[in-house]
Every structure is written in C-alpha cells, then in structure tokens.
Amino acid sequence: MSDSENTSLSQSVTSNETAQNEQQPVQTDAPTQPAQQAASQEASAQAAPAADAAPAGKKAEAEAKPSAPAAVPSPAALAKKKPAAAAPSPVTYSAKDISDAASHAILRDGTVLVKDGETEREVGTYAQGESDAAVDLLVRRYLDLRARVDMFAGRLHSHNIRTREIDETLASLDKDLKEPKAVGDLPALRAHLEEVRGQAEKKKEQIEQWHKKAVEKSTQDRTAIVEKAEAIVAGLGDQTNWRDTADKFRDLFTQWQSVQRKEARLDRKTADELWKRFSQARSTFNHRRRAWAKQRDAERAQAKAAKEQIISEAEAMKDSTDWGATSRAYNELMDRWKAAGRAGRRDDDALWARFRAACDVFFNARQADRDKTDKSEEDNLAKKRELLDKARKLVPVSTLEQARQARQALGDIQDQWDQIGYVPRRNIHELEQGMADVEQQIKAVEDAAWKASDPEEDERKNSFESQLKSRLAEIDTLLASETDPKKKEALEQEKATKQMWLSTVKKTN
Questions:
Q1: First vs last Cα of the chain: how many Å apart?
Q2: Lowest CB count within 10 Å: 73, 93, 152, 215, which one?
Q3: Is 77 contained in some domain?
C-alpha cells in the first residue's frame, strides 16, 4: 500500500475518532439499540469508504476556510421557521462486543488484517500511533454487518414482509459479507447468516402458503361476485325492476373493486377470465336494459298519441247538451284511456289534466241542468199531488149521474195534469196509480150502468182495448227512435198511464 493511501486512512480514522469522541457517549455494556439505530449505523458504515477516500488536503482546506457571518433572522422569519428534525440517536455497541470483534484484528507493519477462515486478509492500513482508531472503525463495520443480519432475522417475523424483499436482502448481505473491509468473527457471522437464510426459506414457504390461501380467497370472492351477476342476468324478464337491478350491479362492481384493491392479486389468466365473465354479464344487462328502454319509449309514444286523440274527441263534445248520448260517449273515452297504457309520469299528468278539464266542462253543465230540472220537477210534483187530492175527492160515486159528473171533473183535472210537465221519476208510479184508482172507481159505476142498458158493451170495451194496445205499440216505436231526453221521458209517462188503463179494461172484462 502507498504512503499516500496510508496517510489518507490515518487522517480519516483520526477525524472519525475525533467526531465520535465529540458526539457519541462513552461505550458501556449497554445492549444493541433498536433496528432504526442499526439501520442508521449501517448507512454510516456504507458511507464510510467514501469519506475515507476524501483527500486530506481538500478536507483541511474546507475546515480552514472561514465561514461568512450569518444574518440575524427577523422575528417573523423565526415564527415561520420549522424546527429541524431530530437526528437519530447513534448506534452503540457494548464494550464486550467491540473487544470480541477486535480480537480478530492482526496488526502488521501499518496494515490491519483479519483472520477470515484459513487465510489472513488485509482490510485496512493505519499511520503510526493510529492503530486503535483504525481497528475501532473496522470493528464497527463488522458490528454494523452483524446488526444488519440480526435486523433481517427480526424482520422475518413481520407479517408484511415479501419474498422479493427476502431475496434482495439476502443477496445484499451475501455481497457485503463476501470480503468485507471489517474486523470480527466473519466465519461465525457468515454461519449466522446461513441460519437466518434457513429461516428465510421457511418464511418464504410460509409466505407462499399464505399467498396461496389469499389467492384462493380472492378467487372465491370474485367468482361469487361473477356468479351473482350471471344469476341476475339469467333472471331478467318482463317483471324486472330495471332500476333496482342497476343498483345491484353497481353494488357488485363496488365489491369487485374492493376485492381487487384489498385482496391478493390473481394471475393474469384467472383474473382475465373472471373479469370477462363479469363484464359480459354487465354488458348483457346493459343491452337488455337499453332494449327495454327503447320498447318502453315506443309504447309511451303510442300511448301518448292515443291519449291525445282521446283528448281531442273529449274537447270536441264538451259543450254538448245531449246528456244521455254524450255521457255514454265519455264513458267510452274513459275505457279507451285506461286501455291506452302509460305515457310516462310527466306526460300522463299533463294529459290527464287536459282530459279531466274537458270532462268537467260537460259533467258540470249536466249537473247544473239536472239541478235546474230537479227544482222544476219538484214544483210539478207539488202541483200534481194537489190535483190528485182534488181527484180523490170526486169519489166514491154510486149513481151513473154522479159518475158522469165525476168523469167530467176528472177530465178537467187530467187536462191540467198533462199541462204541468215532468215530475221526479221516483214519484211517477205513485201519482199515476192514484189517478188510476179514481178512474177505476168512476168507471166501475159507469160499467155497471152500461151493462144494464147497453147490449154493445163488450164491443165498446174491445174497441177501447184495441186502441190502447195500438197506442202502446206506437209509443214503443217512438221510444226506440227518440233521442231527446225530455220527450223520451214524456213518452214513458204516457206509456205507464196507458198500460194502467189497459190493465183496468182487462179486469172489467
């Protein structure tokens, strides 16, 4: 080794020793510090060769160069300044560890050698009087290597270590322990590394088992999601609630993302196959949903057109006063409305409001007319009841003369009766029956007198009965063709009266 190299190592060792005496506490038999300190020491040991190689002249020049005076910071600058991070505590080793490692050093003519198996290998040099510092530096390099091996052994107990980390760490340690520039029991350290390597291999097997189980679970979870998606697609039909089903697919996709993010990764083939199935199920659902939406829109458009036509017809006849026929027409429109189907909530509400408005115009007018008719019919009812009371006062009669007088008075009453007009339908039978009873009593006396004096009685009865039947047939024909409600109701009242007379004539025969 050249004199310049000896001088460089000597200066480096001296500088390192001085820094350690200023910064590190006095070495005691304290145990090794935590792994973080060991890692810091390892970094220091790895950086040491570069520091050792620095030229002494440049280092001295840098130390001799005066520094510029520092500017006094303002109070605002001091307030904004963040506190510097605390430097990690230096790694310390026990005096016994240092002594045991140093026992493997061989000093010979300014050279430090180490017993490495059956050979002695040069690991450094030192200047005169600097041997202890040189050996101390090389011992610490050894202890740092041992700390790295121990830290790795401890790391093997972690649950988050990976196979790649194990392989890379072993490769790094193998390289650094091949011919390290360090002093210590290197064969023992290599043997210790082999023991740790055995533990590492077992850890790798364990990791492989864990990974296998994790992959199996991830495969099962993704397969379950795929099967749920395929089951949903298989159950699609006319009764499908597409909105709820879309929510289910979104939930399944969220589950898929969670499994993909949190659970073990699958091999590309398995992952692609499962994703292809899941994606196919989603695509099938989306295709079916779009087809359903297209058909729904077409049906809604058709329903809207049908309801527009219904509204047009309803608005065209809303002012009609043909209450009966128009009421039936509106009922038919309502049946068509129900059969038209739905046009969508927004359109349906607007269309229904238009249809309802047209219906309300007609039915409100009809109700107003009925209210008016009801008042008129109630007045007519009171008048006819008053006439009925007068007619009932004409009977009983016992002689033909009394019957003729009563008949004449009854005729006057019937003329007034016919002029009054309609009465409520529910009272028609009551009034007609009352008048028929009076008629019957008068007629009974007349019939008795005719039987005693008129041999053509039967012929006259038969003639009157024929007239009644003929009139009834004529009324039926008129009722079949009549559309005016008021005229139709008058014909029905006349029919009821004629039927009552016919019944009376038949009884007297």
A1: 165
A2: 73
A3: no
